[in-house]
Amino acid sequence: MLSALFVVGGLAALFGLLLGFAAIRFRVEGDPLADKIDKLLPQTQCGQCTFPGCRPYAEAIAKGEADINQCPPGGEVTIQALAGLLGVEPKPLNAEHGEAPAQALVALIDEQTCIGCTLCIQACPVDAIVGAAKHMHTVIEAECTGCKLCLPPCPVDCILMVAVQPSPTTWKWPYPIIPLKEVA
């Protein structure tokens, strides 16, 4: 019995070493251009661009499969930054995907009305809503991207979108940071 345990343990250790070696040997690097594009996107994960999140949208832009003007939350600032990075002319925001918000928004749950159905928790792409079934929920304001994906599933309409109040932690520089091209 004891020798069988040693054999199984030895095989498990060997298998672990092989997997570890394979992970190091065959490490797949991400697309560096997609990484740079992704850093310029607002990370709302809202899907308004028709992609399931900012990373898939960045990868599509890098492959030339998507235009740089499909991100309403990013608006003109993001379009300008992407155009600078890619060395292309900026385009106006594509209205088919929505319009840029006039100001940053955050979800606010009316805790007296919330029935604890958890549908908003399931819809939130960034896990900014916390709560438990049949108990009130609340929004972690610092994590909320204002994507509005929590609004449609709420059966009691207890979620409001409110303007983010400017503070040292919520203030954003209003101009794009356009990366400088490397000097040879």
TrEMBL record:
Cofactor note: Binds 3 [4Fe-4S] clusters.
CC terms in the record's Gene Ontology section: plasma membrane
Residues that, per the record, bind [4Fe-4S] cluster 3: 124, 144, 147, 150
Keyword annotations: 4Fe-4S, Cell inner membrane, Cell membrane, Electron transport, Iron, Iron-sulfur, Membrane, Metal-binding, Repeat, Translocase, Transport
EC number: 7.-.-.-
Cellular compartments annotated: Cell inner membrane
Keyword hit for Cell membrane: yes
Residues that, per the record, bind [4Fe-4S] cluster 2: 114, 117, 120, 154
Pfam families named among the record's database cross-references: Fer4_21 (PF14697), FeS (PF04060)
Superkingdom, taxonomy of origin: Bacteria
Entry GO MF terms: 4 iron, 4 sulfur cluster binding; electron transfer activity; metal ion binding
Cofactor: [4Fe-4S] cluster
InterPro entries recorded: 4Fe-4S_dom (IPR007202), 4Fe4S_Fe-S-bd (IPR017896), 4Fe4S_Fe_S_CS (IPR017900), Elect_transpt_cplx_RnfB/RsxB (IPR010207), RnfB/RsxB_Proteobac (IPR016463), RnfB_subfamily (IPR050294)
Residue ranges of the TM segments: none
Binding site for [4Fe-4S] cluster 1: 46, 49, 54, 71
Domain 4Fe-4S ferredoxin-type: 105-134, 135-164
UniProt subunit comment: The complex is composed of six subunits: RnfA, RnfB, RnfC, RnfD, RnfE and RnfG.
Matches recorded under PANTHER family: ION-TRANSLOCATING OXIDOREDUCTASE COMPLEX SUBUNIT B, OXIDOREDUCTASE
Protein family membership: Belongs to the 4Fe4S bacterial-type ferredoxin family. RnfB subfamily.
Protein name, per record: Ion-translocating oxidoreductase complex subunit B
Native source organism of the sequence: Thiothrix eikelboomii
This protein's encoding gene: rnfB
